[in-house]
């Protein structure tokens, strides 16, 4: 059966045609779902909803799950989704930007080096935002946050007293610092998102190929 | 064609697996958070132990789901590659055979279109030629190939493709030889 097709044949066939492609024709579903899911979470939590609310925390946890899934996929996924396909190489990224300016672009199987660096920067910021968010909420799950918010809304303030009991001053200082990092990182990620979108637009134009299509569910273009 | 159906089925399977994996990861992360909360609050309780077990199973499920999905995706790609390699090789075999038969360039084009199943009228329209011309070209092709007509002409290459592999999956009539 074709399932037992030797791996070398498939590898040779893909190696024979990389010059016509840059990145896959269509990213796999896990990459697409995690990409757009996280994009929505960032958009909502940075711009649309109120920080600290149940919705904000729930979305943050969903983003955390998607980030975790993408991390697992970076080791377990198909070749172009794996971290080994796009290692962080700052020098290569700069070289790529230079090539982009000269119009002498190389094509890559996965992200180009500049795009890869952007992906790692975004992921690192997301991890930082999520970690500081967890510190701010004391690591409580959205379910607990919802319960406590409901209790406070009903006039039962004792839940707030209970959480502030352990290591009062140190805890408060840490939470305050975490809150500041959380907000700064959120601002920074919005700037990076704009850069990322601009980068995709410029690269698409230089390659003469729509790089957005493979990330959308769009039909297969041969 | 059945190839398209198979592909569509594979794509559906990939999507279903991916959706399942996303939901499972969501559940796993929420449970892991809850378990860590319980661990801090009361690590000895039956509730915690039970929940930790369930969470471990969920996390394992995510890992296996990811590997299953990757296998499906790779299998799909391998099949596509095999198909395109086969298509490319068949085209090459046909081209070499045409050279062997010393077909002219016009005859090669007409022969290829005929193999693709186009009839005389369609070939004539595609090439902007008269139907009589196409018919004459086809006759010359068949003569050069030493075949009786279009059916045998097409069968020539199908037979090549099947090679020694002509064996009915289930024994049918003895006439199958």
How would you sum up this structure in a few lines?
The complex is a heterodimer of chains A (222) and B (177). With 222 residues, chain A is mostly helical. Chain A is 67% helix and 0% strand.
**Oligomerization:** heterodimer
**What is the count of β-strands of chain B?**
0
Helicity range of the residues of chain B? over 70%
Rough outline of chain B: rod-shaped
Order of helices and strands of chain B: HHHHHH
Task: Provide mean pLDDT of chain A, rounded.
Answer: 81
Query: Beta-sheet strand percentage of chain A?
Result: under 5%
How far apart are the termini of chain A? 25 Å
Average residue-wise pLDDT of chain B: 83
Portion in helices of chain A:
55-70%
Query: What Rg of chain A is obtained from the alpha carbons, in whole angstroms?
Result: 22 Å
- Total strands of chain A: the figure is 0
Largest interface by residue count?
Answer: A-B, 31 and 31 residues
Radius of gyration of chain B, taken over Cα atoms and rounded to an integer in Å:
29 Å
Order of helices and strands of chain A: HHHHHHHH
- The number of helical segments of chain B is 6
* Shape label of chain A: elongated
Which structural class is indicated by helix and strand composition of chain A?
A: mainly alpha
The major pleated sheet of chain B works out as: none
Which properties best describe this structure?
heterodimer; A: 222 residues; mainly alpha; B: 177 residues; 2 domains; 0% strand; rod-shaped; disordered C terminus
Give a description of the structure:
With 222 residues, chain A is mostly helical. Chain A has helices spanning 7-16, 29-48, 54-76, 90-102, 113-136, 142-153, 158-163, 168-207. The longest helix of chain A is centred in the last third of the chain and has 40 residues, at 168-207. The model of chain B is unreliable at 171-177 (pLDDT under 50). At the A-B interface, helix 1, helix 2, helix 3 and helix 6 of A face helix 1 and helix 2 of B.
């Amino acid at each position: 059966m074709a399932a037992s097709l030797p791996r070398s044949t498939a590898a040779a066939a893909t190696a024979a045609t990389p010059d016509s492609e840059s990145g896959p024709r269509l990213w796999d579903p896990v990459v697409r779902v995690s990409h757009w899911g996280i994009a929505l979470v960032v958009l909502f939590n940075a711009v649309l909803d109120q920080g600290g609310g149940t919705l904000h925390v729930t979305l943050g946890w969903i983003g955390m799950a998607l980030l975790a899934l993408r991390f697992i996929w970076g080791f377990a996924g198909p070749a172009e989704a794996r971290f080994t396909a796009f290692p962080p190489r700052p020098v290569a990224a700069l070289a790529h930007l230079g090539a982009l300016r000269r119009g002498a672009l190389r094509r890559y199987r996965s992200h180009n080096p500049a795009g890869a660096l952007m992906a790692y920067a975004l992921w690192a910021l997301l991890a930082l935002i999520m970690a500081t968010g967890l510190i701010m909420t004391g690591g409580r799950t959205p379910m607990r946050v919802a319960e406590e918010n409901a209790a406070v809304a009903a006039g039962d303030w004792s839940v707030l007293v209970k959480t502030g009991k352990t290591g009062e001053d140190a805890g408060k200082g840490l939470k305050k610092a975490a809150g500041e990092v959380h907000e700064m990182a959120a601002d920074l990620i919005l700037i990076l998102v704009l850069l990322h979108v601009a980068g995709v637009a410029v690269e698409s134009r230089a390659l003469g190929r729509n790089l957005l299509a493979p990330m959308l569910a769009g039909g297969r273009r041969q | 064609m059945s190839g398209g159906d198979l592909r569509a089925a594979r794509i559906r399977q990939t999507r279903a697996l991916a959706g399942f994996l996303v939901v499972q990861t969501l559940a796993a992360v929420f449970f892991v958070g809850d378990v860590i909360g319980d661990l801090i609050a009361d690590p000895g309780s039956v509730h915690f132990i039970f929940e930790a077990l369930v969470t471990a199973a969920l996390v394992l499920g995510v890992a296996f789901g990811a590997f299953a999905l990757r296998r499906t995706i790779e299998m799909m790609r391998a099949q596509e590659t095999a198909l395109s390699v086969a298509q490319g090789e068949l085209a090459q075999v046909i081209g070499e055979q045409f050279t062997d038969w010393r077909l002219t360039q016009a005859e090669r084009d007409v022969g290829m279109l005929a193999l693709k199943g186009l009839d005389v009228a369609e070939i004539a329209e595609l090439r902007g030629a008269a139907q009589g011309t196409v018919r004459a070209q086809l006759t010359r092709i068949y003569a050069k190939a030493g075949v009786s007509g279009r059916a045998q002409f097409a069968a020539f290459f199908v037979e090549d493709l099947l090679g020694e592999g002509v064996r009915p999956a289930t024994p049918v009539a003895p006439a199958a030889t």
